[in-house]
Amino acid sequence: MTIVHDKRHLDPDWERWAKKGLAQESVYSLRFVYLFTQADREKERQMLAGKSDEERVQLETDIVNARDDFMKRVAERVASTFICYNFDPNEEPARFDDVRWELYFWCNHFQDCPGRRDYSYFTLTFNRSHPPKWRLALCKRVLAFLEQHYGQNPNLNVAVQYTTYYDEDRIHTEALKVRDQVLNKRCTWQGMAGKLVFNGERVLFMKRYARSKAYRVSDFDVLNIYWALHPEEGEELVPACQT
């Protein structure tokens, strides 16, 4: 089994927010793929050599079915140990934000047979209603389980897909603390020059020379603009994000 740690989807500046205690690295999903080795390809080539078109089609179908059966067994074994929502098509529907499930199962269907699942590629998405630390702990448990049962299998490829978790409650609190220090100060937002104003309910960006039109900005924007105006505040706010 091969485990790949895919961190391409982490936000470019997530570490800056993490140092300030407002974000942390977490996991989004596990991606399962069946990969043929060079030995598999050579064996397949030898099997197909000299066969008629009809025989080749049957052999290729057998190879696809064998791959699919193996991956289905992997999915079934995981689903028998962890709470996998959507794996059993006959189960009662549950809300996607229901905290009772651990992993959300998804896979394609065969194009020539829409009602049949194609298990050769499937994903298990972690429940976003669970705290990031729970997701990381669950990820370690699933990987350990897979290593125990499939560690020596050369065909199973599992990619851990990471994402950035933002502590939105803390970000809102920090934005409120610095709000008055960014209002009516010259700044830039999305490439435009202007200033932030407060309309009694929320912070808005007003483009330079604009008289009435304003844009809604987020707590993320307020903090980014504050840090740009106060470079000395670039140090860590707290040692680490607490969740």
Sheet/helix structural class: alpha+beta
Q: Can you count the helices?
A: 6
Give the biggest sheet.
6 strands, mixed
Order of helices and strands: EHEHHEEEHEHEEEEH
Proportion of residues in β-strands: 25-35%
Shape: elongated
Computed Rg: 25 Å
Strand order across the largest sheet: 1-6-2-5-4-3
Q: How many β-strand stretches? A: 10
Give the low-pLDDT segments: 236-243
Look at the structure and give the mean pLDDT.
90
Cα distance spanning the termini = 32 Å
Classify the helix fraction into a percent range: 25-40%
Can you tell me about this structure?
With 243 residues, the protein is of the alpha+beta class. Helices cover 37% and strands 29% of the residues. It has six helices and ten strands; from the N terminus they run E-H-E-H-H-E-E-E-H-E-H-E-E-E-E-H. The chain has helices spanning 14-19, 38-48, 53-81, 132-150, 168-182, 219-229; strands spanning 2-6, 23-34, 84-85, 103-110, 113-126, 156-166, 186-189, 192-198, 203-207, 215-216. The strands form two sheets. A six-stranded mixed sheet has the order 1-6-2-5-4-3. Helix 5 (168-182) crosses helix 6. The two termini are 32 Å apart. Mean pLDDT is 90; it is low at 236-243.
Outline of the structure:
This protein is an alpha+beta fold and 243 residues long. It has helices spanning 14-19, 38-48, 53-81, 132-150, 168-182, 219-229; strands spanning 2-6, 23-34, 84-85, 103-110, 113-126, 156-166, 186-189, 192-198, 203-207, 215-216.
Furnish the topology, listing elements before pairings.
Elements lengths: L1 E5 L7 H6 L3 E12 L3 H11 L4 H29 L2 E2 L17 E8 L2 E14 L5 H19 L5 E11 L1 H15 L3 E4 L2 E7 L4 E5 L7 E2 L2 H11 L14
Parallel strand pairs: 1-6, 3-4
Antiparallel strand pairs: 2-5, 2-6, 4-5, 7-8, 8-9, 9-10
Helix pairs in contact: 5-6
